[in-house]
């Protein structure tokens, strides 16, 4: 089930239930930058780029989701918008995780955890305990 921002804003879908169910689409931080900050504040991309000391083309690519938020850009954005220096980097990390999880969805169930391989190793060897041998 795909939902959009309007579904959440209208109350048709609760943000909490959507996030818990993993049905929110992965949204690049650039979308949030434009829709949640620049547009409501009435700041143009060109003015924001100048204020942050970056090329307008780069900021445009970031907003379009064509480039990721780098550590340096996260610091610039945080300074510009009055947030922590890591805020935008964490948004990028969460976005990257959502995209990777979606891409790995079919493979993930076939992967083993360390417990599965550790348990297999312990069961396959003899364990010596308190002077006698036993097989685990």
Describe the structure concisely for a colleague.
By secondary structure, the protein is mainly alpha-helical. It has helices spanning 5-9, 15-20, 29-41, 45-52, 56-63, 71-81, 87-104, 114-123, and strands spanning 126-129, 132-135.
Q: What is the terminal-to-terminal distance?
A: 47 Å
The gross shape turns out to be elongated
CATH-assigned fold name: 434 Repressor (Amino-terminal Domain)
Query: What is the CATH architecture term?
Result: Orthogonal Bundle
Strand order of the largest sheet: 1-2
Characterize the biggest β-sheet.
2 strands, antiparallel
**What is the domain total for the residues?**
1
Helix/strand structural class: mainly alpha
Helix count equals 8
Extended strand count: 2
- Rounded Rg: 23 Å
Q: Strand content of the residues, in percent?
A: 5-15%
CATH class term:
Mainly Alpha
Mean pLDDT: 82
Proportion in helices:
55-70%
String of helices and strands = HHHHHHHHEE
Outline the low-pLDDT stretches. none
């Amino acid at each position: 089930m795909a939902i959009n921002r309007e579904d959440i804003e209208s109350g048709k879908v609760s943000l909490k239930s959507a996030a818990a169910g993993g049905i929110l689409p992965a949204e690049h931080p650039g979308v949030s930058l434009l829709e949640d900050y620049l547009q409501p504040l009435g700041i143009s991309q060109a003015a924001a780029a100048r204020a942050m000391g970056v090329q307008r083309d780069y900021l445009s690519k970031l907003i379009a989701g064509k480039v990721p938020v780098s550590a340096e850009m996260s610091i610039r954005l945080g300074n510009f918008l009055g947030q922590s220096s890591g805020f935008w980097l964490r948004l990028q990390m969460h976005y990257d995780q959502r995209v990777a999880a979606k891409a790995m969805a079919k493979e993930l169930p076939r992967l083993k955890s360390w417990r599965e391989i550790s348990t297999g190793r312990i069961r396959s060897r003899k364990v010596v305990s308190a002077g006698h041998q036993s097989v685990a």
